[in-house]
Each structure stands twice: as C-alpha cells, then as structure tokens.
Amino acid sequence: MNSGATQTSEDLRDGGRALWYDKVGLLVAPIAVAAMFLPFMSFAANRIVEAESRSILASLPQTYAVMLLAALGVAALLLLVRTSTKLRAVSAGAAIALLLVAAGLAADHLSADANTYARVRPASGFWLLLFAFSLGLTDAITRLRLRPTTRIALATAALGALLLLVSSGLWSNISFLKEYENQAQLFWREARQHITLSVGSMLAACIVGIPLGITCQNQRGTRSAILNTLTFVQTVPSLALFGLLIAPLSWLASNVPVVSALGIRGIGTAPALVALFAYSLLPITGNTLAGLEGVSTSAREAARGMGMTRHQRLLRIELPLALPAILAGIRIVLVQNIGLTTIAALIGGGGFGVFVFQGLGQASIDLVLLGVIPTIILAFASAVLMDAFIDMSRKERREHR
Amino acid sequence: MRAAWLIRLCLWLLLCLFLAEPQLFADILRPLNRENAPTIYTQGVLWQLTLIHLTLTAVATLAASIVAITLAILVTRRSGRDFLPLSRSVANIGQTFPPVAVLALAVPVLGFGSAPTLVALFLYGLLPIFENTVTGLTTIPPSVSEAARGVGMTAAQRLFKVELPLAAPLILTGIRVSAVISLGTATIGSTVAARTLGEVIIAGLLTNNMAFIVQGAALVGVLAILIFDLLTVAERAFANRFGASATA
Fold first, then answer.
1. A24 vs B191: CB contact, 8 Å cut-off?
2. Other residues' Cβ atoms within 10 Å of the Cβ of residue A378
C-alpha cells in the first residue's frame, strides 16, 4: 500500500513539473548548434592536394548562409522546447531537406571558380547536423506511432525526393556524385546484382525454410538436429563461408559438365548466392516454427472441430496465424543479406561492395561513399517496408479473431 | 551429451595443433593448389594472427558490453524514460547498417589498421547487447518489482539485486551474439589492413591460392563455433547456478 502511494505521488510530481524543454531535444539541439560552427564542406583543388575545410559562412553566398543558419537555429529550438510532436517531426524533416539542398548549393558555389578536378564533399559539420536532425526526426516519428501505410508513403516520398535531387543535377558538384556520373552504368549494374543476390537468396531460403519450419513442428525428433545445424552455419563468419564455398564449387565446375554449363564457377555469383542462402535459413525456419508454435490450442481445436483436414488446417489457419512471425524472419534475412552482399564483392560476386573495396584500396572516400550510401538506403528502406508489412499482418490477425 | 564434450575437446585440440605446427597439415592442403604454390601462410605467424584477432574481438566486446549495459540502465530509469523510444529506434536503425559500411566509414576518420576495426567492432557490438538489456529490464513482471519495492529496497538495490540478475540471461545472450558478430567482422578488418586471420583469406583470394583461403576460413570458422559454444556453456552454467541460488 505504502509503496503504491509513493509511486503515484512521484508520478504526479514528474508530470506536474511541466518541463519547458524536451529531454531528447536537450541532447540533440546543442549537437546541432555546435555543428553549425564546424566545417560544413571540405574543398580540394584536385585529388592529390590536401583538402581545406570551409564553414557554412564560407561555403555559401552570404545571404544564403545567414538564411540557412537562421533556419537551422529555429529548427534546433523547436526540438529543444516542448511543442507538438508533429511540429517537431516537420521541422526536423525540413531541416534535413534544407541541409541536403544547401550541400548541393555549397558545392556549386565552391567549385564555381575552380577547375574540373576540384573535389568538394560534405565535412564533419554537415554530417553532424544531419545526424542531430535525423535523431530528432526519428524520435518524433517513433512517438507519433504512424500507421503502416503512412510509414510506407513517407518512406516512398523520401526516396523519391532523394532520386529527384540526384537526377536534378543539384548535387552534381559533390565529389561522390561526380564519381557516380563517371560510372553510372556500372553503378546500376552493381545495384541490380546487389538486389538479385540479396533478394534471390531470401526467396530461395523461403522456399526451403518455410517447409523446413513446418517439418520441425511436426517431427519433434528432427527439430533440434535441423536447428542446431542451421545455428552452426550462422556462426561461421561471412568471409570464411564465402571462401570455403569456393573450393567445392570450383571442383564441381571443373568436374561436372552440367554444373559448368549452367555458368556456375568457383568465384562470382554462385558461392555468394549459396552462402547468403545458408545464412538465411535459420531466421526463416526458426521464425516459421515459432509462429506455428504460437498458434493457440483453441484455434487449432476449433479448426479440427469444423472437420478440416490436416492440410486445410495448416494452409487456412496455422500459416495465416503464423504470418507475422514468418514476415519478421524475412525482415531479418533481407536486412542481413543486403549487408552481407557487400562482402560478396571480395569473391567476385559484385554488388555495391565493389565500390567499397575499390575505394578502400585506392583510399578514395568518394568511392567508399558511393558503395556505402546506397547499401544503407536499401537496407533501411527494406526494414521500413517489412516492419510496415509485419504490423499490417498483425492487425489482420487480430481482426480475424 | 558425452559425445558433445568429445567433439568439443577434439576441435580445441585440432585448433591448437594447427596453430602450433601448421606444417603438419601441409599435405592435406596441397592438393587444393597449383604446383609450387605455397600451402601454408607464412607472411604472418598464424598463432599470432589468431591472438590479435581474439584480442580485438575481446576488447571490442568488453567495451561494448560496459557501454551498452550502462546506456540500457539509463534509458530504463525514470529520469531517462524520455530517451527509451528514441534509443530503441536508433538501435533498430543501427542494425540496418552493414558491418562493412561501419568499417569503411571509420577509415577516413581513423586511417588504416586496427583502430577503425576496433571502432567498427565496438559500435556494431553495442546493438545486440543494448537491445537485449533493454528487453530484459523492461519485461520484469510487475509483481516482482512491486515485491522488491514492498520490502523497502532502494532504487539501487532493486537494480542490482533484482532487475539485473533477472535480466542476466538475456544480457549474456546479447554479449554472445555480439562476440560472434565481432569475430566475423574482425575478419573483414583485414581489408583495411588490420592484422587478423582475415589476412590469410584475403591473401588467398588475391593470389588465387585455394589452400590459403581454406586454412584461413576453416580457422576463423572453427574459432567462431568454439567461442559460440564456450559462451553458450558459460551461459547455461550461470543460469544453473543462479537458478539454484534463487530456489535455495
């Protein structure tokens, strides 16, 4: 009794104090303000000389610079004080959009009287501002608890805006976009390869993993054997697994004519696909099993009572009820595979990793960014999409009941 | 059960033997290669590379554990509650960043070598531990916290005597996941010139030397499995001990 009373009074005090500031804003706003004084852009006359850093005031025409600083200041203030969550989301989003546009304008301004070898790229201040406002935006969006469809729409709009920005040429003076324009064809080829590898292996894993999960549920004897084997596979580091697959696959390619006729080689797409597939099996099988196990006995018995056969029960009752869990497994696999595919570049599998490792080899940040940024966007977009699907399937499941 | 211990012992012995006397295994690896190509990696001493690899992983996992558990405790306290939704989202988004991306982005800031690898391992290792600790601390049954409050425990006592011990199994699982991920990511650290076992695999890939690839990959793979296994056993032992003391 006594303890309950103290808790309520504590709650009252905390709520009644009516803070004028937001605690997350108290963390984020100072970061943003400090970042405004850090170097916004770095400028090098060519690839060889050392880059010099430029502040916001030095990298934009003065009126623009002052306007940008004022706008960012207001956005930071809106994150700091307690206002409506929607307003916070909008102002943080607007600040991010403004930053992206300003980076393009700054690059144009800085390279206006330089030759074509000049390299301009965003510097620490830009990245830190982007980080701070992204934190603010993430916090606001998380608290808004948007509906799945709204989240998909927002993500699509953001992606569209980004593509528009790239194709508009506003960023054409930023160094990694220059790199992109130099090898646009290769970029899209590697993009296709990246998606093929990560989505293809996921689909193959679904075709095998879902039935495997069903088997695990029906035959308890094989369950631990299957799950242990899959855990064992997942433990092997990716580079090691990619490497270990080269040997058997190249042996097959040189000794079995059918295999080599199919275009399978020891290095390249084949070992990459096999390794990604192997990694994908555990989350899908495990989650299918967990989803099926989670189906309530009352649902099972009702289905049995209606005279459904085992087959009907599985297809019409159990699998639909297990869908959220299966989708959660697919989400894990998709995000994981998009990341792992980068490593496939080391064994000639292609994908965005090609730019990353080329960039690391040549010590060129621009090439690294050209590989890293699209990978992160792809992984992030698929996470948002899959999370929305999972929420939708959960809701449907509730309505079914 | 006894078979499992036997396999475990054999694998450990095999690992030690290979690290101590790699030349003994040269004949097994030779058929993989073209004639005259070196079979055993000699540009670095294998056991030294293994030691560096393990040290990097251990340091990163230890640092990540300390920071992640502290952060998780902070955001689950009353005064830190405001940060809970944000920190969960950040952990969630952070996991969509591929390890290679974290590694590659650390290079421009820290240069080549062990430093970017250590930072990437640390940052990437934070997420599973943080997420598991938060889950463990927020899913404690209300009746338990009520009881702890009822017997007059202070907030600190509740945290150390009730909440953390109850969350311990989940926290340990997070640490194990993090350690295994770090072990794998450290391999990729060799692409930015960190001296780890990945060096052997990459040397094999560059010179088309299948024996190098296989010995490097097998070494890392066996190491990862043994460490995963070791931590699982440790977790079970911890759970048994804790379970016993709780019922006593």
1. no
2. 22
Q: Which fold has domain B43-247?
A: MetI-like fold (1.10.3720)
Is residue A100 predicted with pLDDT exceeding 90? yes
Both tokens of residue B227?
């460490």
Sheet holding A41-44, edge to edge: A52-54, A41-44, A119-122
Residue A241 has pLDDT above 90, yes or no: no
Sequence ranges of the domains in chain B: 43-247
Token pair in block for residue A246:
């080269």
Quote the minimal CA–CA distance from B35 to chain A in Å.
16
Q: How far apart are CA A70 and CA B128, in angstroms?
A: 39
**What's the mean pLDDT in A19-39?**
89
Nearest CA of chain A to the CA of B202: how many Å? 8
Residue B214, pLDDT above cutoff 50: yes
Q: What is the pLDDT of residue B1?
A: 63
Neighbour-count burial for A331-351, b at 16+ CB within 10 Å, e otherwise:
bbbbbbbbbbbbbbbbbbbbb
pLDDT of residue A10: 39
Residue to substitute from A14, A31, A235, interface B, most B β-carbons within 10 A: A235
The whole-number average pLDDT for the span A153-160 is 94
What average pLDDT does this structure show over A291-312?
A: 88
Domain boundaries, chain A: 16-145, 184-400
* ipTM of the complex in this document: 0.82
CB of A334 closer than 8 Å to CB of A173: no
Fold of A184-400: MetI-like fold (1.10.3720)
Q: Is the model's pLDDT at A3 over the cut of 50?
A: no
Q: Token pair for residue B153?
A: 């425990």
Please name the helix (run of DSSP H) or strand (run of DSSP E) that holds residue A340, with its range, or none: helix A319-344
Q: Which amino acid is residue B4, in one-letter code?
A: A
B19 CB neighbour count, 10 Å cutoff: 17
CB contact under 8 A, B214 and A338: no
Q: Is the distance from CB of A43 to CB of A173 less than 8 angstroms?
A: no
Residues of A in contact with B184 (CB under 8 A): 236-240
Confidence of residue A278 (pLDDT cuts 50, 70, 90): very high
Under an 8 A CB cutoff, do A243 and B188 touch? no
- Which residue type, as a one-letter code, is found at position B24? L
Residue with tokens 């699509």: A156
A172 three-state secondary structure: coil
pLDDT digits (tens, 9 = 90+) for B18-76: 888 888 787 777 777 776 778 788 777 888 899 999 999 999 999 999 999 999 999 99
The C-alpha atoms of residue B163 and residue B182 are separated, in whole angstroms, by 27
Q: Say whether pLDDT at A240 is over 90.
A: no
Query: Following DSSP, what letter does each residue of B91-111 receive, concatenated?
Result: HHHHTTS-HHHHHHHHHHHH-
Tokens describing residue A24: 């997350």
Helix, strand or coil for residue A343? Answer: helix
Residue of A nearest to B197 (CA): A240
Comparing A78-82, A256-260, B127-131, B175-179, the range with the smallest average pLDDT is A256-260
Q: Which of B98, B99, B187 is nearest residue A240 as measured by Cβ atoms?
A: B187
Both structure tokens of A295 = 């189906």
